[in-house]
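subagent[fold] <- orchestrator: predict structure for attached chain, return tokens only, no commentary.
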Amino acid sequence: MEAPVGAVESLLRTPPFQDTSRQQLEELIPSLRFFRYDAGDIVWRAGDGASDLCFVLEGQVQAVETSEHGAQVIHDVVGAGESFGHPALFAPSAKRVVTVIALVPTMLARLPREPLLVFLETHPAAMRRMLESMSLLLLSFSSQVTGLAFHSVRARVALQLTQLADQYGQPVNGGGLRIPFRLSQTTWAGLVATTRESVNRTLSDFAAAGYISQRGGYITVHHRDRLRGMLAGR
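subagent[fold] -> orchestrator:
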């Protein structure tokens, strides 16, 4: 499909193009492919060839890994203004290690590896941004592993709430940050490696304490500092 209206402007706010001019980015437009996905559609499966980098123009996707027994771990939730698919794209094996699924109706731009590499080699600012994105991914993964090893379920849920609020939160009247997409109990359980029942109980406890509120499937975070305090045992 053709580039949707506003695609270039959206890409200019997305890693690794934040320091790229519109004229420079337009060099890549002929190489970009645009796709729409309905909620539940699979963008790619674990084991597929890693041939391109994806940019979320609208919507949200989740990266999930499933064990042979059906247990799931959600590695990440990616929303508009973000890119994903970096690690496997540059790995020698070039195989996807997670399955990516659209959480809501989603528009993606996909850029093949070779045009991307040529662009990075000729635009140092974009290369720096790409390296920054890779570093942030590594730090996020390290934090996730540490959280699973050392933090309780309550602390892990608190961490995810604060991260989602900081990254995507929209200010609301009366204070607080509304997370602008709904995550199912299954997705929450996968994000923090626990059961749906434990997640539901923890979110209910946080709502009763006034740390968050829930309405229509959306969560608003009201007290990030108190949630962060759980990571330090306070």
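orchestrator: received. Logging for downstream: The chain has a mean pLDDT of 86. Residues 49 and 198 are 36 Å apart (CA to CA).
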